[in-house]
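Run log // design_07
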C-alpha cells in the first residue's frame, strides 16, 4: 500500500501579524509550521502504516523553505518527502494548487490512498483536497473523524457533517480529508529526526511535471479566482451595566431592555 499525504507549510497563526490597511497576512512576521490539520492526516497515515504496512509519501507545493516541513513529516513517520516548487507556481488559487498537486501525485505513480487535512489555517477554504480528488477522478470523503477498518480493497470511515454522522466505505484509490478529532499527532522521534536530516527531498518544478501540467494550468495563469483583500472583523465585546444605588431602578431598566429586545412582553 502507498499513501500520499498532502502537506502545506503555513505561518504560525498564533504569532503572525495582519496588515489591516493592505488586507493581507504578513507572512514574514512569524515562523512557519506544518498546517495542524495536515499533521492529523500524517498521523492517520503513519498509524495505517504501523498496523497494515504501507509506504507514506509526504507531498507539498510551496517555496524552497517548505523542504523543512517535509523533513518534519519524515521525522514524524513519513518514509519520504517530495516538494513541488517553481516560481511559476506562485499566486496559485485553490484550483491551480489542486491541479499542481494532482500532477505531483500522477508523477509519483501508483497509490492507494491520499490523506489531507480538512482545511488550512491560513486559507480555510476546505476545497483543495476535494479538487485534487476530482482532477484525479477518484472517490473522496471529507471531514473524516475516525478510521474504522483498513483492508486490501477499501477503507471504512466515520464522518461528521452538518450534525449528522455517516459510515462511509471508500474503494482504492481514494482520498480522505480528516478533522482534528481523528487523532493526536505524535511528536518527532529522535530516530525520525536523524532520518529526516539525511533524507533527500526531490524538488519537482514545472519541467518535471510537464507530462501532466503546463504553465497555463498553474500559478496566476491557471487561477480563475484571486483574493483582493482579507478583513478580520473586530472582536465583539460584551457590554454590561451595574446598578448599586437603586435595585428597583435597575430592575425597571432591565425589564425595559428585555421588552425592547422582544424577549418578554410588556404588561
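design_07 sequence
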Amino acid at each position: 500500500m502507498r499513501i500520499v499525504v498532502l502537506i502545506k507549510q503555513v505561518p504560525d497563526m498564533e504569532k503572525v501579524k495582519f496588515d489591516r490597511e493592505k488586507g493581507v497576512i504578513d507572512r514574514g512576521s512569524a515562523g512557519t509550521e506544518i498546517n495542524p490539520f495536515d499533521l492529523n492526516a500524517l498521523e492517520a497515515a503513519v498509524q495505517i502504516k504501523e498496523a497494515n504496512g504501507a509506504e507514506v509519501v509526504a507531498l507539498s507545493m510551496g517555496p524552497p523553505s517548505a523542504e523543512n516541513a517535509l523533513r518534519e513529516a519524515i521525522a514524524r513517520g513519513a518514509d519520504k518527502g517530495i516538494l513541488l516548487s517553481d516560481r511559476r507556481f506562485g499566486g496559485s488559487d485553490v484550483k491551480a494548487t489542486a491541479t499542481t498537486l494532482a500532477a505531483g501525485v500522477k508523477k509519483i505513480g501508483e497509490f492507494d490512498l491520499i490523506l489531507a487535512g480538512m482545511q488550512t489555517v491560513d486559507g480555510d477554504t476546505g476545497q483543495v483536497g476535494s479538487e485534487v480528488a476530482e482532477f484525479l477522478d477518484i472517490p473522496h470523503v471529507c471531514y473524516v473523524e475516525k478510521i474504522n477498518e483498513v483492508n486490501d480493497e477499501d477503507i471504512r470511515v466515520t464522518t461528521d457533517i452538518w450534525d449528522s454522522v455517516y459510515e462511509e466505505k471508500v474503494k482504492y484509490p481514494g482520498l480522505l480529508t480528516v478533522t482534528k478529532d481523528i487523532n493526536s499527532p505524535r511528536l518527532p522521534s529522535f530516530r525520525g529526526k536523524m532520518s529526516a536530516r539525511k533524507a533527500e527531498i526531490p524538488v519537482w518544478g514545472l519541467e518535471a511535471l510537464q507530462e501532466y501540467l503546463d504553465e497555463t494550468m498553474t500559478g496566476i495563469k491557471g487561477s480563475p479566482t484571486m483574493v483582493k483583500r482579507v478583513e478580520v472583523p473586530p472582536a465583539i465585546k460584551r457590554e454590561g451595566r451595574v446598578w448599586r444605588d437603586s435595585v428597583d431602578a435597575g430592575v425597571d431598566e432591565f425589564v425595559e431592555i428585555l421588552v425592547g429586545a422582544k424577549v418578554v412582553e410588556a404588561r
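Helices lie at 36-52, 67-75, 94-108, 128-136, 190-198, 247-260.
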